[in-house]
Amino acid sequence: MQLHTHEWGTGERVAVLVHGLMSDHRTWHRVGPALADRGYRVLAVDLRGHGRSPRGPYGTELFAEDLVETLPAAPEVAIGHSLGGLALSLAVERLQPRRAVYCDPAWSLARVGQPVDPALFVAFKRADREMVRTFNPRWCEADVDLELATVALWDTGTALALSAVHLQDHTPEKPVVPSLVLFAGEGFLFSEQAAAELTERGFEVRTVPRTGHTIHRDDFDGFMAGLEGWV
């Protein structure tokens, strides 16, 4: 499947951005231009079932295969958030970026505390402004507006395809390329034990304090600082 792609910048180095569940390329509306200012040509996809990309069957491997089919091989850096981090990790051996950054990746939802079933996010399809603001108190009004717009286009079948019997631990055994894992200090996927395990497996691990799951929207400056040396 060829995914819808949005582009910022004209640099010779390529950076690719992969969003999380319920979102689309617009979640990177500050990150994309910031990377373009650093000399990158930035490509941000809409995963299948999100934004302007086609609908179809859903599954972790399909999300990954779409990245390989759509994006140029061997980009300078690839950044994936949540579901995008999971899809990127499954595609990274074929995509072969020089560096990979996984932002609060949805690798092991079934292992951290009580299981988090993605089917729970279907309820967000009916979200209004008050609900978005309640769950994301640090967001600016522009991000609240964008969330409402992206959720309106989102196919809830993407969440159901990751649910129940499809819940798996996808935590990589080791990084395929030099890799950074950026955890949210107040996110629901983070644990000190997980950070220690990933460090032992060869990942660099950093935490952006006082941020929830969507780090780049909770604290843009903190997110960009967390990327220093990787972009």
Description:
InterPro entries: AB_hydrolase_1 (IPR000073), AB_hydrolase_fold (IPR029058). GO terms for molecular function: catalytic activity. This protein has helices at residues 31-37, 60-70, 83-95, 129-135, 141-153, 157-160, 192-201, 215-218, 220-226, and strands at residues 5-8, 13-18, 40-45, 77-81, 99-103, 179-184, 204-208. It has 231 residues and is α/β, with parallel strands linked by helices. The protein has one domain (5-227): Rossmann fold (3-Layer(aba) Sandwich). The chain has a 7-stranded mixed sheet with strand order 1-3-2-4-5-6-7, sandwiched between helices. Helix 3 (83-95) links the parallel strand 4 and strand 5. Helix 2 packs across helix 3. The longest helix is centred in the middle third of the chain and has 13 residues, at 83-95. The radius of gyration is 16 Å and the shape is globular.
Short characterization:
The protein has helices at residues 31-37, 60-70, 83-95, 129-135, 141-153, 157-160, 192-201, 215-218, 220-226, and strands spanning 5-8, 13-18, 40-45, 77-81, 99-103, 179-184, 204-208. It has 231 residues and is α/β, with parallel strands linked by helices.
Structural descriptors:
about 230 residues; alpha/beta; Rossmann fold
Q: What's the alpha carbon Rg, rounded to whole Å?
A: 16 Å
Helix content: 25-40%
Q: Which strand order spans the largest sheet, edge to edge or round the barrel?
A: 1-3-2-4-5-6-7
Globular, elongated, flat, extended or rod-shaped: what is the shape? Answer: globular
Main sheet attributes: strand count, strand direction, barrel closure: 7 strands, mixed
Number of structural domains = 1
Could you say what the CATH architecture is? 3-Layer(aba) Sandwich
Alpha carbon gap, first and last residue: 28 Å
What is the averaged pLDDT score? 93
Name the poorly predicted regions.
none
Give the DSSP E fraction (strand runs of 2 or more residues).
15-25%
Text of the CATH class: Alpha Beta
* CATH fold-level topology: Rossmann fold
Topology as H/E string? EEHEHEHEHHHEHEHH
The CATH homologous superfamily is called: Alpha/Beta hydrolase fold, catalytic domain
InterPro entries: AB_hydrolase_1, AB_hydrolase_fold
GO molecular function, one term: catalytic activity
Protein name: AB hydrolase-1 domain-containing protein
Organism: Streptomyces lydicamycinicus
